[in-house]
Specification:
12 strands; seven-stranded mixed sheet; alpha/beta; binds pyridoxal-5'-phosphate; 356 residues; five-stranded mixed sheet
């Protein structure tokens, strides 16, 4: 991928980590909270993949907050009842402060979203959702006549392009698949719409949620290997999902690539590049057994977050505010380890949970 590289004799292959708080007057760059060359390289690459203009943010949630804060006072936001936990907490916080009203819906149920859409200022969607891995029909949601914002974190910029499906703005937690090594917290927002682009750039400068140049360099370096990482991690996810589905110790498996997934056909159409690296499964013996599985793995790591080179898993129900998640559900983010090693690890952790 050439995007985000300088080209020509003597040009560096990678952008410099530009440690500059200010720039000499009279040019396009003025001050380090407003412009930075390393951001520009990262933004060029993400913009090329998503088909829009990108703005880098200090975190995924900073990008989400920039979108939401662009809405007028008293705005109505339709959002998934099981949205990413940070998004839900942000919306609840703003609602408590009288800033906006959130109408929470099942985002995979287009009729339910349509019923909530009249008078709304924004539809917020995630697909796949985190952690339930539900699939929202993004084209159908974009056609409801309300601006659509999509959190594309779990699909990555490779598997799904919401702007092409009619979304007004797309955000990513670059912390996850984009940077891909669990060593960076960063976000990005992308749009084709000049009004939205102006809002995003203004929010970044005014709120100051700017990423560090080193983080931005690492996120771009991670992005360069995303195609091979995602191929491997998705193949592993598909194989583990199949095996878990056939395992009597597991009562339910959610993976968009499984024919048993309620929106499998939609996922196949909407995510032509693949079904992603995340699997959610429920341990038949219950929440305590699921917790034991998480504590018993030796190759996978019991930790929150996702999209890194190492396999991570956790029981989402362990967090306050995750009542919408089944208490025995484990979210598994597949990394780059050998699938047989991971399967042996899960198998021994499930065995450990069975014997208490
Ligand atoms: C992690 C995550 C976020 C928040 O991103 P941060 O980089 O942690 O701020 C937003 N949406 C989804 C789907 C996520 O998984």
């Amino acid at each position: 991928m050439l995007a985000g590289r300088g080209r020509g004799p003597g040009q560096p292959v990678n952008p410099p980590v530009s440690l500059n708080a200010t720039y000499e007057a009279g040019g396009d760059r003025v001050y380090g909270r407003d412009q930075n060359e390393t951001w520009e390289a990262f933004e060029a690459a993400i913009g090329a993949l998503e088909g829009g203009t990108a703005f880098a943010f200090a975190s995924g949630l900073a990008a989400i907050a920039a979108v939401v804060d662009s809405l007028p006072a008293g705005a109505v936001v339709v959002a998934p009842a099981d949205a990413y936990n940070g998004t839900r907490r942000l919306l609840a916080d703003l609602e408590r402060n009288g800033r906006l009203t959130a109408r929470l819906v099942d985002i995979t149920d287009t009729d339910a979203v349509a019923a909530a859409a009249p008078g709304a200022d924004l539809i917020w969607a995630e697909s796949p959702t985190n952690p339930m891995l539900g699939i929202a029909d993004l084209s159908a949601l974009a056609a409801l006549g309300v601006p659509l914002a999509v959190d594309n974190t779990l699909a990555s910029p490779l598997l799904q392009h919401p702007l092409e499906l009619g979304a007004a703005v797309v955000v990513h937690s670059a912390t996850k698949l984009i940077a891909g090594h669990s060593d960076v917290v960063m976000g990005v927002a992308v749009s084709r719409d000049d009004t939205w682009l102006g809002r995003l750039e203004a929010r970044r400068s005014l709120h100051g949620a700017v990423p560090g140049p080193l983080e931005t360099f690492l996120a771009l370096r991670g992005l360069r290997t995303l195609p091979v990482r995602l191929d491997r991690a998705s193949a592993t996810a598909a194989e583990l999902a199949r095996r878990l589905e056939d395992d009597a110790r597991i009562s339910a498996v959610r993976y968009p690539g499984l024919p048993s997934h309620p929106q499998h056909a939609l996922a196949a159409k909407q995510m032509p590049g693949g079904f992603g690296s995340m699997v959610a499964f429920e341990v038949a013996a219950g929440a305590e057994a699921a917790e034991t599985v998480c504590e018993s793995v030796r190759i996978a790591v019991h930790a929150t977050s996702l999209g890194g080179v190492e396999t991570l898993l956790e029981r989402r129900g362990r967090y306050r505010g995750e009542q919408a998640t089944p208490p025995n559900l484990i979210r598994l983010s597949c990394g780059l380890e050998h699938v047989e090693d991971l399967w042996a690890d899960l198998d021994q952790a499930l065995a450990a949970a069975a014997t208490g």
